[in-house]
């Protein structure tokens, strides 16, 4: 029987859970605020080429910058330690998101979204490596990684709730940039994770495994080139492709859903004949409601994964448990209810969130076992940031590029095409996913 958690271990799990929750919180702000932010900062109307261009840039550029600096952050995690990099990354994304609430131009919003993305990209890698090494018992490690990552979906629920509060009560908050726009208050709420971290930081230990080797002078230097040595080449290539596909489904389809909702017949009926401010409030509130279903689905998927990860030995089998249903379900959701049925879309997006978001927890459990200690942060970072953040999130730009070419310029149809493509590629690549060794020695 495993010993009970110590106070320090509980503290570690709490701060990691906060970090996981708010890195998703920061990312999922964009689908909720992009429409009103662009209408104010650019003056572009939804559906126009100018609007679609800036939507694509807001999804694409921060992901590219975050991926590059996230890879550097993974290298620094191996070089400087897990705790130091983790704390710095959380502070970076929290204060960047807060500052973004005060922007007066689209260019400044993009710059601050880039720094937010850098913090998020680094935080995931540092937190996963840190937790994996603080809990050496395999079953406990699987459980800790699975359940702490489940709090990522609480982040999605929290940002949906913050956006709803901003929509309902924004008029009562202090004015920002001369107005009471809900998207600005939603952005400013991103500073929340920095507050407990400032208090808890002195009590957080470094990874004992990493610190022991560092102090003894036996810690090998991390190397990106080593990721492509014969020993790790297949792991690096396959995980990068599959991580890209997981993010491609989220960014190429799921994150476009709040923009799709206002075009549904039921929403148009609710807004018909009403003043523009009332129309915007109805559209944003309905989009937030649909997003809530997606986040509940994602939360369910993460907890389902956490339970299955303890009992299913085969990592390929575990991944396919979510991959195969997604391959069939998600394209159908965007082909049909996302175009004409609001109520059915809510349930469709619930299951789409379940099978897609669970895959992110898979990578947090799989990657620490795929590389040795000195290469863990670098290896995780390559798959997560080059594969997921850079290649995967570029699917958002693919969707916005395809939208004007679709019948009726339908974003839903474009999302269906992208979802089908990335799920198909990921399902094929899974055949080559290596089963990790029982325990990888450094």
TrEMBL record:
InterPro entries: MFS (IPR011701), MFS_dom (IPR020846), MFS_trans_sf (IPR036259). Keywords: Membrane, Transmembrane, Transmembrane helix. The chain crosses the membrane at residues 12-33, 53-73, 85-104, 110-132, 144-165, 185-204, 236-254, 296-314, 321-338, 344-366, 412-434. Its main location: membrane. One of its GO terms (molecular function) is carboxylic acid transmembrane transporter activity. It comes from the Bacteria. It is found in: Membrane. It is a multi-pass membrane protein. It holds the Pfam family MFS_1. Residues 12-438 form the Major facilitator superfamily (MFS) profile domain. GO terms for cellular component: plasma membrane. This is MFS transporter.
